[in-house]
Amino acid sequence: MLKSEIRKQALKSRLSLSDEEYKTLNNELLKQFIALDFDRVKTIHVFLPITEKKEPNTFLLIEWLTQNHPEIKIIVPKADFDMVIMTNHEYLGIDDLQKNLYDILEPQRGNVYEGAVDMVLIPLLAFDKKGYRVGYGKGFYDRFLESLNAQKIGLSLSSAGNKIDDVNEYDIRLDFCITPTEIIKF
Ligand SMILES: Nc1nc2c(c(=O)[nH]1)N(C=O)[C@@H](CNc1ccc(C(=O)N[C@@H](CCC(=O)O)C(=O)O)cc1)CN2
Ligand SMILES: Nc1ncnc2c1ncn2[C@@H]1O[C@H](COP(=O)(O)OP(=O)(O)OP(=O)(O)O)[C@@H](O)[C@H]1O
Question: Which ligand number lies closest to the CA of residue 127?
């Protein structure tokens, strides 16, 4: 299937989740997430969820990490929509976040972080069995991941979907995808 079609379907089915279903799926996703091996992870990049679009609620993961791995540094993104690039910022807590024009929370005072990142959690609309993903279609994450040497982990509230037929040379495959029922290794 083509990305454009997959994108439309995925958005629709995601928005049809009830608040109750959304909550349950997020709790199940957290249970899978905590089974990852964090032994060599010093820095983790976590996207900030657009909950209006029923993206995985990464605040649950941030909370768990803060409590169970206070030694891990949490980094959050800020997107520049003109340049289609993202920068890494230190996470100073929820009070430092404000929504941009696209309803995406972003850090205000958190300094740019230029150091190494060991693990990146990646938003997606759909993924296939080979580990390719479909996002909102601007190519933010493909550009961002190019410059990082980190474990790439997709987060999805639904399971693997149809094969993506229009994969391009920029598409970067995930190393893992976490769903509410399993951790898939590609
Ligand atoms: N939480 C989160 N942050 C993220 C992403 C994501 O998927 N999730 N992105 C992943 O790449 C980037 C943002 N990607 C976006 C791409 C397009 C539109 C956008 O244009 N939205 C319009 C509708 C479409 C249009 O007008 O063309 C809108 O919402 O009005 C928004 C965000 C960076 N940050
Ligand atoms: N590293 C890159 N350099 C230049 N162009 C790129 C790069 N990565 C992606 N693109 C271009 O960006 C556009 C959007 O890519 P694609 O459809 O794969 O986005 P997506 O993965 O769905 O979205 P996102 O990464 O924002 O979640 C494509 O036209 C693609 O060619």
Answer: 2
